[in-house]
């Protein structure tokens, strides 16, 4: 329902603006997370964001295949596409061709593969290093101590642009408890930006905890549910996402 989407977008925008004001920080970028949503839902939200004056709304997808289908369906929209799901090396070529940003770079092999496959006619691929900030066994992302090495490898690639860090903290039921992880990310980001001033993006915060993430310096929040409504309980999708 366009009306519902408009109201949700307005509510999310207000939350972001208010959180930034409270934290006395610039208003972060909104990444609309479209997993499980079809292209028409994305198109409706994109139209609203364009009407609100955003020149190039950012959308995030978890799967290369799903993103390719949606990007084809929305080829007219001036959308900035971000990959926010785990990337297998054998999909690096397709990802390097399709996306404007890859937020989930967590190993040297992926750096090399994305650089090799980024088409010469495109701008350098923007990349974020994904950090496993809670040191969870099952999670993707590099260890915090591996960030400098990966950053050096990315910065050495002219076909890649090192833009910062991304994290998905452990889903603690109390958002305040996630704030400690966000604070550790902020420290890691500040250390990175001191060395690489082009690193200007800290991607963290989702529907349930974007206020806490913004308080700790998020410059980009990734929001699905609060924009599109609850996802259908699709266990297959959930399992694939983890
Ligand atoms: C699904 C997802 C989000 C959005 O989560 P919501 O709680 O629906 O806002 C953000 N980041 C990643 C990596 C995701 O997979």
UniProtKB/TrEMBL annotation:
Keywords, sorted A to Z: Pyridoxal phosphate
Sample GO molecular function, one term: pyridoxal phosphate binding
Keyword Signal: no
Cross-referenced SUPFAM superfamilies: PLP-binding barrel (SSF51419)
Modified positions (N6-(pyridoxal phosphate)lysine) in chain numbering: 35
Domain Alanine racemase N-terminal, residue spans: 9-232
Cofactor(s) of this protein: pyridoxal 5'-phosphate
Keyword Disulfide bond among record annotations: no
Family: Belongs to the pyridoxal phosphate-binding protein YggS/PROSC family.
NCBIfam families linked to this entry: YggS family pyridoxal phosphate-dependent enzyme
Function: Pyridoxal 5'-phosphate (PLP)-binding protein, which is involved in PLP homeostasis.
Protein name: Pyridoxal phosphate homeostasis protein
The species this protein was found in: Luteimonas salinisoli
